[in-house]
Amino acid sequence: MRYVSTRGTAPSLDFAGVTLAGLASDGGLYVPERWPTLSPDAIAALAGLSYVDTAVAVMMPFVEGSLTREELTELCTAAYGRFDHAAITPLVQIDHDQWLLELFHGPTLAFKDVALQLLGQLFERFLKGSDQHLTIIGATSGDTGSAAIDAVAGRAGVDIFMLHPEGRVSDVQRRQMTTVGAPNVHNIAIRGDFDTAQALVKAMFNDAAFARRFRLSAVNSINWARLMAQVVYYFYAAVRLGAPGRSVAFSVPTGNFGDVFAGYVAARMGLPVARLVVATNVNDILARALASGDYSSRQVVATATPSMDIQVSSNFERLLFDLGGRDGAALAGQMKGFEATRAMQLTNAQRDGAAGLFVGERVDADDMALAMRHACETAAQVIDPHTAIGLAAARRHTAPGVPMVTLATAHPAKFRDAVERATGVRPALPARVGDLFDREERFTVLDATYDAVSGYVAAHAVPRG
After folding, report:
1. Does the global pTM surpass 0.90?
2. DSSP state of 110
3. By the 8 A CB rule, do 193 and 310 touch?
4. To the nearest whole percent, how much of the chain has pLDDT over 70?
5. What is the CATH number of the domain that holds 293?
6. 112 is a catalytic site residue
7. Which residues, at least 6 apart from 228, have a Cβ–Cβ distance to it below 8 Å?
8. 206, 222 contact by CB (below 8 A)
9. Helical residues (DSSP H) of 380-449, grouped into ranges
10. Backbone phi, then psi, for 406, in 5-degree steps?
């Protein structure tokens, strides 16, 4: 399998290459040169398999040429051995049509663990036996940072620099990052919002002199390997609800579009996905883009769902590339126009291509709270605010006879105050992280400028040999 950039001019790479590179050298995102497909019989054969075996079956076409089936099985076994539920991503029924797919049973209590525990294993495997030193740079709106740090803390040959917006993540999210004492972990709180943090990360990758000095890689969902790992749980859930014999719909609370793009990949691979509900909070650029083609950035509004407080959804570029005929030059022009003006209109081909599968849904704070109360009172399920955004959107788009699965993206204890306000229940942290508030924090606060952040990274990273 080879991978190409959405902007058309970066060299194609194999799976190992895109995993270590993260962002393409032309500023684009890597995607497979073709979508592998699983036949209905192959999908049916997934029924009853463990999560690890499902993961190997789904991901093997993407890693061919870089990993053997035995190597991939070994990596997946190690990655998912730290989850506290044997099913890894169990399904929970809410009512006749509604289900939750719990993605928060990993070590940092969020869906990002599903991908990042594997990504940490992949980094170590691909660096083994070389003298290369990897400098990972990422931005987080809450959960990516802690999951990425947990996945690579203490690993040889890797340093991680994680940017988060100061004061705009929950106390649990922040502490899960800043209390990790490994010497290869560097936490940076920037005086700005997530979109600014993400732009700073991209700027470092696109700075040719900086990129020559350090071997840079990414753990954000701009890294293809992360998205690949997330495709698995769509298959795992759907076959348990009757696929391929019946279609299944999914509601995905999202800000950066990575998690829902993984659902699109599953559909392109042959999984019968009836609908992908793109659930946003009031930072609704994705809902607007899907409804009217208006992809224009507005000021970020801070909400009780900080992981979705985003107005520039980097993974949307992958969808626009695929729906626009995979014309890298055309998309490069489209995206450069957006980067200059913070506004663009989707083409007719992009809008029409999205319309058959996607629907965007904006959920405000009141409906989020109502969804939390509904889950608690009718099904005894305490859910976090992000999951509640997804559930509220799911209930508006449920079709008779089609199971609707809401992705439960974080443990409710990560957002204790918001959950307690809505339900009267204050969720407790699981025992394995119960001492979180007794640990010492360690992070650096910087102005949200390129010189300040790149200078800090340069002062603490290991240059290329």
Report:
1. yes
2. B
3. no
4. 100
5. 3.40.50.1100
6. yes
7. 59, 62, 63, 115, 262, 265
8. no
9. 385-396, 416-423
10. -95, 130
User: H helices within 325-414, ranges in order?
Assistant: 328-341, 348-355, 365-379, 385-396
- Sign, Cα dihedral of 451, 457, 461, 463: negative
- Rounded to whole angstroms, how far apart are CA atoms 72 and 59? 9
DSSP 260-282: HHHHHHHHHTT--EEEEEEEE-S
pLDDT surpasses 80 at 175 = yes
Burial class (CB in 10 A: 0-12, 13-18, 19+), 99: buried
Catalytic residue among 112, 202, 336, 414: 112
Locate 437 and state its tokens. Answer: 């508030």
**Beta strand pairing status for 3-5 and 30-32?**
antiparallel
Domain count, the chain: 1
Identify the domain containing residue 252 by its residue range.
87-107+224-423
Residue 249 lies in a domain: yes
Tokens of 368: 């989020």
Q: Pick from 179, 186, 195: which is nearest to 140 by CA? A: 195
Residue 272, domain member (yes or no): yes
Element (H, E) at 78: helix 69-79
134 within 8 A of 19, measured Cβ to Cβ: no
Confidence band for 77, pLDDT divided at 50, 70 and 90: very high
Give CA–CA dist 308/178, Å, rounded.
21
Residue 465 reports pLDDT greater than 80: no
| pLDDT value of position 431 | 86
Q: Is residue 299 part of a domain?
A: yes
What torsion do the CA atoms of 346, 235, 284, 325 make, to the nearest 10 degrees?
Answer: -10
Q: Is residue 32 part of a domain?
A: no
DSSP 31: E
| Token pair 């890298």: residue | 328
Measured CA to CA, the distance from residue 294 to residue 411 in angstroms comes to: 33
Residue keyed to tokens 């405000």: 364
